[in-house]
Specification:
It is a single chain. The protein has 424 residues and is an alpha/beta fold. The protein has 14 helices and 18 strands. The strands form five sheets. A seven-stranded mixed beta sheet has the order 3-2-1-4-16-17-18, with no helix packed on it. A four-stranded parallel beta sheet has the order 10-13-14-15. A three-stranded parallel beta sheet has the order 5-6-7. Helix 6 runs parallel beside helix 7 and helix 7 crosses helix 8. The chain is globular and about 70 Å long. Bound molecules: zinc ion (ZN). The site of zinc ion has 5 residues, from loops.
Length: 424
């Protein structure tokens, strides 16, 4: 269009270019939360140039398009560091199996596009999607579709297939003649696991996800324990291969045997961690290994799964105690919900905030997990989870004050991503 008009003459061309210059946007925030400094600024403008924040100002620049959120509390867009967009709830094994056996990948990808829209509408402008559950590299496609403007959703960091050794992950329990799909990529031995990491990175993995343990049970002495998956040698190969390609490793790890192997191999985050022992907490605090607690999913599955195995109610209970001890010890805690493990349209993943506050965090601390800390985990500090100059213009607004009532985060009424208004 522009080029066609330009051939009409220099005057028309110059006029068109001038009118196409991007207009500044100024979001007038009644209250602006600076999560990093824990300061509240009142009646300020977040000045946005294109997709990034230009400055925080007392006045709107002349000619700026003003969005009036005087009655709102405004904060950086939320980051959920543990999601599965290609999953739609798996409180029971039957629900999980049906998704892998009866649903095509195109169907799952289409439903994932709706999950992504839901997440964004709830204020989550970035997600770390941490395993496709049998959907190949479809998360890479979803990420591309969002980046290319084909669908609307949060910015994605993706783990692709996740890794577990042979025999350690479903689908299982079917007739031995049947080749049923697996929810992960199986790999064995240091060489085989290195190859799997290389393949996932070649196909677009931003991080690597491993399953460190499985099969949770209670010992006669009352302790909750699990079966280890990989050997230390295998996990070390995975971590080394990921790190030398500048990718982080997230380990699903529920009890101390998983933690000791995962931490021994040098993983960057423990996912879930409902049963944390003192040694693991010490190591995580010292080496700054992130805990991604996913309390929402633990609450969601506790009821249905305890019908056949009461360990799930025990894990739910233990998770609060572990959370408190990790918080007290200075373990970096990053916001993660396991959305997809629960149905995207049944629960708002922002409920995780209230669970952190109920388990001992201040509202400021809870907000930090989904902004500053999550951005650090993603190595996006200064760009995401903050509204400082140069950051991506990802904003959330609530009518109520989340510092007074953290559940205000579950009722966002304004969402902007990359300077584009998503919800108003
Ligand atoms: Zn998960």
């Amino acid at each position: 269009m522009r080029r066609t008009l330009c051939i009409l003459g220099l005057v028309a061309c110059v006029g068109l270019v001038a009118s196409a210059a991007p207009q500044l946007v100024a979001v007038k925030a009644g209250r602006l939360l600076d999560v990093g400094s824990q300061q509240v600024q009142e009646n300020v403008f977040v000045v946005i140039d294109g997709a990034t924040v230009k400055e925080i100002s007392r006045t709107a620049p002349a000619g700026a398009n003003v969005i009036d959120l005087s009655g709102h509390t405004v904060m950086p867009g939320f980051i959920d560091a543990h999601t599965h967009v290609l999953l739609q709830g798996d409180a029971t094994a039957e629900e999980y199996d049906a998704q892998l056996l009866k649903e095509s990948l195109p169907y799952r990808a289409l439903r994932a596009s709706r999950a992504l829209r839901i997440a964004l509408d709830h204020g989550f402008t970035t997600i770390r999607d941490i395993g496709n559950e049998g959907a190949g590299f479809a998360d890479v496609d979803l990420k591309r579709a969002i980046a290319g403007g084909i669908i609307v959703g949060p910015r994605m960091f993706v783990a692709t297939k996740a890794l577990a050794p042979t025999g350690a992950y479903g689908l299982s329990g079917y007739g031995w003649e049947l080749a049923v799909p697996k929810g992960v990529e199986l790999c064995d031995g240091a060489v085989g696991c290195r190859r799997a990491v290389r393949d996932q990175i070649e196909h677009g993995a931003d991080l690597i996800k491993v399953y460190a343990d499985r099969s949770y049970y209670r010992q006669p002495d009352g302790q909750i324990r699990s079966l280890p998956n990989f050997t230390l040698e295998e996990l070390q190969a995975i971590v080394d291969q990921a790190h030398r390609t500048r990718r982080k490793v997230a380990a699903h790890s529920m009890t101390p045997i998983g933690h000791s192997l995962a931490l021994g191999a040098g993983v960057d985050s423990l996912e879930h961690g409902p049963v944390l022992d003192d040694q693991s907490i010490r190591t995580m605090a010292e080496r700054k290994v992130y805990l991604c607690p996913t309390l929402t999913v633990l609450d969601f599955v506790a009821g249905p799964r305890s019908v056949t195995n009461t360990i799930w109610a025990d894990l739910q209970k233990a998770s609060r105690e572990s959370f408190r001890r990790a918080l007290a010890a200075g373990v970096p805690i990053v916001f993660g919900t396991d959305a997809g493990g629960f149905d995207w349209d049944k629960l708002n993943e922002a409920e995780e905030f209230r669970r952190y506050v109920n388990a001992g965090m201040t509202p400021w601390q809870a907000l930090r997990t989904a902004t500053i800390t999550a951005a650090e985990l993603l190595e996006q500090g200064g760009r995401l989870g903050t509204l400082q100059p140069g950051a991506q213009a990802d904003l959330v607004g609530t009518r109520e004050d989340p510092l007074r009532d953290i559940t205000a985060t579950e009722r966002v009424s304004f969402v902007m991503k990359d300077g584009v208004v998503i919800r108003k």
